[in-house]
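Subject: VCBS repeat-containing protein

B.,
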Amino acid sequence: SWSDPVEVDACVLRTGVDSLDVRDLDGDGSLELLVHVKKGLEVFRFDDRDPVGNPVLYRDDSERSRGLQFADIDGDGHDDWIYLSPGSDRSVRTRLWRKSGFGPECSHAFSSRSGVNLLPLGMRGKGEPSFVAVEADTEKITLFSVSPKNDPPKDSTVWNPLIRDLFGSGDEEASFTTADFDGDGHLDVIAASPSLAEILFLRGRPTGDFSTPSAFPSFHGISSLVAGRLYEKGGMGLVVVSSKEKLAGVCRHIPGKRFRFPVDLPLKDDPVEVVCADLDSNGLDEILLVAKERYDYLLHRFVADKKGRFSEVG
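Prediction pasted inline below.
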């Protein structure tokens, strides 16, 4: 069962899905709550379930900065903070961990339109951490690493992006997710536009590119797509959320054929956001869905039975 929530008083959060994190910053064996707020980064410490004292604030004067990526970039055994300040020609920012907190900000001569994705052990699985981003001027995908100094990113590798025109320029913001949906060992892509009542399936190929998209009927007004290990056999399952139809459903790929139309989850409230996670460590994901009931937001948990039918559990 779920424990009662713990409430903390934080400043106004920055917009985005990467404004919260939980990690052991100082290596004392206890986890801290990290909250990226408009004033900077707030760090909350806890004694069991009780906040200890006031949060520590590391000020960040760039109103547009975002991101909570952590990696040991100076080799001292402690994670350092990497984030972006979009719109600047030195948009990659780092703050090194110094004994009891983060030091001053360093900026690096790299401009990115996107967020930064971390490869903790580099591209080859060993060595210093690397980062992947979209370079602002060329719009090319770039792999780079940063030093503890204000140096430009080094050892940059650049790829031309593989571009697929899936939706019209006037469409609303699309959703997408990646996973091996057909069980062939290659990552596939599923995308959806809120203006269409369908999903687009791009099958992954051994060469690293994708097939032309195939359309399958689905909800109208899709606002979220999430992949999860929902079934014991076959590829990954797909959770589809429609904010317009106020529905959430699950579908999967039929080998060699098509995607089924989503089967509704038994939900009376309006779905807002969804994730999949294996909370009970049985090898299969549960569906965790946040829904709005009038003025409250509720967390629902759905699990599948042996026949693949989902029901809500406490």
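The chain has a mean pLDDT of 82.

T.
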